[in-house]
């Protein structure tokens, strides 16, 4: 894993400042969406060997939620955007 | 060939020319009754018990690398059955009982060493939690002893008892816990399975699973198509990759866990000791190296290597527990890919496909479970019903709200 994460707000910061939340593809279902949808939301995750988008929280920095796109095999970081950027959140 | 002191003696007299490879390197047959994907500890143990206990010998174990190249050769070799929860405790105790008879059972020296596992506690609250766990263990017939500060001091005088922030108050000890030589576990199970007719096929990566009429008929591999009556997954950190081949989404994330070994030292730590104020566990190998580890790195990874920040964190926890470690040099570190489940407990179950079975989600506790996992999985595959101690490890427990969350942190795999 890269030792530095380029936060769009703070610049390159040590990885230890961040908290990894995981899979950014999951979408919170409607309250009445049914058990299957809620099971999938709470327990099922994309877990690809390769490119993966994840939520990272800059806990010890700007405290913004970010979407980090990286490769789980090579640990290369491709892109880091704020989670509120268009197209990044559900 | 049966290994014994006599066979060692006889072979020595004959110039050690009589030793044969411990298992064959067969060309895969066209069809097997059972194909197991994954030649790690669990896959090999499953094949061994299928052949030995359940009479299923037309079995192939497919391993994409070589035997012992995955987590079975990458862990910190600790065995214990000091679990709190109902679903876990009898299962891990079955594993401990199998460890205790394993070497005689598979005729291989696995260096099973019941040197005792001590979990240190540093506060009144933690003592109460450990008391509860120790009582739960005893109610299940597992040995547990609560040690006070003086008892621990007599055993491990070099711990930092008066650490200003995390003073050591005592420990929960399981005397029957200890260590096992992990490579020998892989080799012993491989040899025992091979002797009973199981084909162990190394360097054979599964690239696809062929289905007809809703059933699995075989697997596409780097060595061609191999047909099977039943297919059993035991792919550990790569479980998701294999499950994707049958469009099965798992409640699992793959994470990297690092482990470390120091330079060789004179006998120093007699037991397995874990730090209660951070995550650090250490034992000393027979070569003298301290074998230790800590938390997973915390991000999804298939890379079998970790980050320096975690190395630093583990070292800090170690020095907080044993100040003398600050002068010890680390010889090696390495990483393994953990199949972290959403409640920290494993899955041994049938799937939505009739003849497809799943064994996954071992988080970073899979090594100690190897014998029981193999036994229960073999039972499930051979009889199509779960073994009584493995009944709780169902795939649908998440949907049904029956999590086995030993740590109580919820569905966040990097916290288990």
Shape of chain A: globular
Mean pLDDT over the residues of chain B? 96
Q: Which term fits the overall shape of chain B?
A: globular
Helix-residue proportion of chain B: 25-40%
The share of residues in helices of chain A is 10-25%
Strand coverage percent of chain B: 25-35%
- Quaternary structure classification: heterodimer
The biggest beta sheet of chain A, please?
4 strands, antiparallel
Strand order of the largest sheet of chain A: 3-4-5-6
Helix count of chain B?
9
| Uncertain stretches of 5 or more adjacent residues of chain B | none
- Note the beta-strand portion of chain A: 35-45%
Q: Calculate the mean pLDDT score of chain A and round it.
A: 93
Structural class of chain B: alpha/beta
Descriptive overview:
- The complex is a heterodimer of chains A (90) and B (416).
- Chain A is mainly beta and 90 residues long.
- In chain A, 10% of the residues lie in helices and 37% in strands.
- Chain A is built from 1 helix and 6 strands; from the N terminus they run βββαβββ.
- In chain A, a hairpin with a 7-residue loop joins β4 (51-57) and β5.
- The mean pLDDT of chain A is 93.
- Chain B has 416 residues and is an alpha/beta fold.
- Chain B contains 9 helices and 18 strands.
- In chain B, β9 (206-212) and β10 form a beta hairpin.
- In chain B, α2 packs parallel to α6 (182-195), α2 (41-53) crosses α9 and α3 (89-106) packs across α9 (370-383).
- The longest helix of chain B has 18 residues, at 89-106.
- The chains are: A mainly beta (90), B alpha/beta (416).
- Chain A binds chain B through residues 1, 3, 14-16, 20-23, 35-36, 39-40, 42-45, 47-49, 52, 54, 72-75, and chain B through 238, 240-241, 249-254, 297-303, 306-309, 342, 398-399, 411-414.
